[in-house]
Each structure stands twice: as structure tokens, then as C-alpha cells.
């Protein structure tokens, strides 16, 4: 869905209370009863129906018919408004601009802060493609599918925020993360374009080596990107340096499928350079030897190349709990469906 923040400034405090109540009720209900919304929001039931009607007209909630009780679902539009309001209250965002990108499971927009500085916001939208990809596994998300997709989107944003923050702090070429709320990530605006838009390059060998070095540096720090390709690599318009984006699927080098993810990242770059630039190198990183190099640099294995293992710090998928395991199942399906 397309983000439309036109009505955001006109929503009343009561309407946001109702919207928040629907979100809270979605934790235990596929369709949130109107009576429960009234109880959570602590507003009179008479006024609730009018407020819900207004929110439904704006597409922020949807009324569900043919159920045993009168109820509503939170839409991604409503979820967007709740996230944008949280960011606005923290003065990290003041206005929403044009859409500049569409991912498999996300939308990207230019926004600005109160001083007018441009930033980028990424809205995770798991379920847009994932739903079709795993529709045969009807028991996967249980009975609360719509709420679960938003919950997964929130987990994806939390995970991406954690990775971006630690990677940026340790000097990796990633955007500077600024803030996050629910399923949204706010980051710096970089004047760059996707690698996939390049038809030629003055020195493809140099760029190839730089990208392989990034893959190796990730692995030396205990991490594998998991979707390292021309869609998730930006080229700075001035310096020509690569910037890596998109981290929800990042995994630990101790992950059970770590070698598959690592080889896939390497193969995606090799395939793209051969197809686009006619460049084919006889040298590329190997998983086992790369890990051994990292261990030698770390010494005993717990002190990383950057001082410690970053996978341990950010609790990468190989170390995550039940919630991260659930998220990983969705992201793994998406990753395996993607062809370099």
C-alpha cells in the first residue's frame, strides 16, 4: 500500500487513542471487538462508533462483517500513522515526501526533520509477498494472520535497526540510523543510486574487489548479509563508494545455514558482474577459509576483528529467541525465492 500522510495532522487525540486500542487488541484478537476497543481506549461506547467510522473512512482500520460480533482490524495505513506519530513526537520527522523505492517487503520514502533536513524512512510490510509465498502453510501464522504480519514487520524493523546501529558504529559502509518506531526505520539520506542501475563502470575489477572485501569483513565480524546483491548495494553519486542496505535477513556465521547464505552473497555479486560488465574474476572468498582468517585475527575466537563478535552483540538469527526464529522463517522463504 502507498503511504498517505495527508490526514495525519488532522487526527485528534481521541482518534489516536482508538487506533492504539485497536493495535493493542490485535495482540489477542484477529478481529477486535468494539466493546474491547472502548474498554482499552477508556472512551464512551457511544463516541467509539463515530471515531471508528471516521478511521475506517480514512482506511486506517477496517470493519469486518460476517462475524459473531462487531469488530475492526488495524490496517497497514493505521500502523503507519501510529509509527509516524511516534517519530513526530520525538521531533525526528516533520514531513513526508515522495516515494523513492519499493522493495519485496518494504516501501521507502524521503522525509524531512523539523529543520528541513532530508532523511529516508523505510516501512516494513511483510505479508505483501510473503503471504503468497507461504499461503500453502496455513498454520504458519496461526489464526491472527493480519496482526501477525504487522508483528513480523515490527520484528524485522527492530532487527534491522540493531544491525544498522552496530554496523555504523564499527565503520561499515551503511546508512546512519536515526530513529525507529514499530515497523519503521529512519535513516540519513544518501545521494546514491542502486548498483543495478549501472550499465558500465570504469573499473569493474576494483568495485568487485571492494564488494567482496565487504562480504569478508562482515564474516570476520561474525555476520553474513544474506541478501547481498545489486538491489541492496548503493553507489554514492560523488565518491563512487558502495553503501550496503537492507539487514533484516542478516545472520550469524554460526547459523546452521551460514555457508549457504555466504556462498549465495558471493555468487550474486559474481553473477551480476559477469552479466552486466562482462567481468569474471578467478578469485572469490570461500566460506571456510574466510572464517579461519577471522579466527586468526580474533585470536582466541571471542575477540573480533573489530574488538568482538558483532553477531553476539546484535543477537543475530543464529542466536535469537523464539520471536527471531519465527521472523527468520519468513525471511528465509523470501531469500530463497529471490534469484540473483
UniProtKB/TrEMBL annotation:
Any one GO CC term of the record: preribosome, small subunit precursor
Keywords of this entry: ATP-binding, Kinase, Magnesium, Metal-binding, Nucleotide-binding, Serine/threonine-protein kinase, Transferase
PROSITE patterns named among the record's database cross-references: RIO1 (PS01245)
EC number assigned by the record: 2.7.11.1
Classification via InterPro entries: Kinase-like_dom_sf, Rio2, RIO2_wHTH_N, RIO_dom, RIO_kinase, RIO_kinase_CS, WH-like_DNA-bd_sf, WH_DNA-bd_sf
Pfam families from the UniProt entry: RIO1, Rio2_N
Domain RIO kinase residue range list: 65-289
GO molecular function list: ATP binding; metal ion binding; protein serine/threonine kinase activity
Cofactor(s) this protein cannot do without: Mg(2+)
Family: Belongs to the protein kinase superfamily. RIO-type Ser/Thr kinase family.
Protein name: Serine/threonine-protein kinase RIO2
Organism: Serendipita vermifera MAFF 305830
Organism classification: Eukaryota, Fungi, Dikarya, Basidiomycota, Agaricomycotina
Amino acid at each position: 500500500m502507498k503511504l498517505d500522510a495527508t490526514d495525519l495532522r488532522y487526527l485528534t487525540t481521541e482518534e489516536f487513542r482508538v487506533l492504539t486500542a485497536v493495535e493493542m487488541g490485535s495482540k489477542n484478537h484477529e478481529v477486535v471487538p468494539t466493546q474491547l476497543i472502548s474498554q482499552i481506549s477508556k472512551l464512551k461506547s457511544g463516541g467509539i462508533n463515530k471515531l471508528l467510522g471516521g478511521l475506517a473512512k480514512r482506511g486506517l482500520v477496517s470493519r469486518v462483517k460476517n462475524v459473531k460480533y462487531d469488530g475492526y482490524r488495524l490496517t497497514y495505513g493505521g500502523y503507519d500513522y501510529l509509527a509516524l506519530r511516534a517519530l513526530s513526537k520525538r521531533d525526528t520527522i516533520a514531513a513526508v515526501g515522495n516515494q523513492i523505492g519499493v522493495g519485496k517487503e518494504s516501501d521507502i520514502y524521503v522525509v524531512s526533520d523539523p529543520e528541513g533536513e532530508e532523511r529516508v524512512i523505510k516501512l516494513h510490510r511483510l505479508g505483501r509477498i510473503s503471504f503468497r509465498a507461504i499461503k500453502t502453510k496455513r498454520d504458519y501464522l496461526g489464526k491472527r494472520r493480519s496482526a501477525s504480519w504487522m508483528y513480523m514487520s515490527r520484528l524485522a524493523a527492530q532487527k534491522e535497526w540493531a544491525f544498522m546501529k552496530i554496523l555504523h558504529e564499527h565503520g561499515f559502509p551503511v546508512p546512519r540510523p536515526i530513529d525507529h518506531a514499530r515497523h519503521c526505520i529512519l535513516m540519513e539520506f544518501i545521494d546514491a543510486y542502486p548498483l543495478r542501475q549501472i550499465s558500465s563502470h570504469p573499473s569493474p575489477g576494483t568495485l568487485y574487489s571492494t564488494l567482496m572485501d565487504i562480504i569478508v569483513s562482515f564474516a570476520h565480524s561474525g555476520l553474513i548479509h544474506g541478501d547481498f546483491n545489486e538491489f541492496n548495494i548503493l553507489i554514492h553519486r560523488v565518491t563512487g563508494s558502495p553503501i550496503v542496505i537492507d539487514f533484516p535477513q542478516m545472520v550469524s556465521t554460526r547459523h546452521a545455514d551460514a555457508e549457504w547464505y555466504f556462498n549465495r552473497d558471493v555468487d550474486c555479486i559474481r553473477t551480476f558482474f559477469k552479466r552486466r560488465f562482462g567481468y569474471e574474476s578467478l578469485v572469490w572468498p570461500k566460506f571456510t577459509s574466510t572464517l579461519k582468517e577471522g579466527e586468526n585475527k580474533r585470536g582466541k575466537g571471542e575477540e573480533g576483528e573489530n574488538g568482538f563478535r558483532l553477531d553476539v552483540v546484535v543477537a543475530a538469527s543464529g542466536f535469537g529467541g523464539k520471536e527471531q526464529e519465527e521472523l527468520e522463517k519468513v525471511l528465509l522463504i523470501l531469500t530463497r525465492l529471490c534469484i540473483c
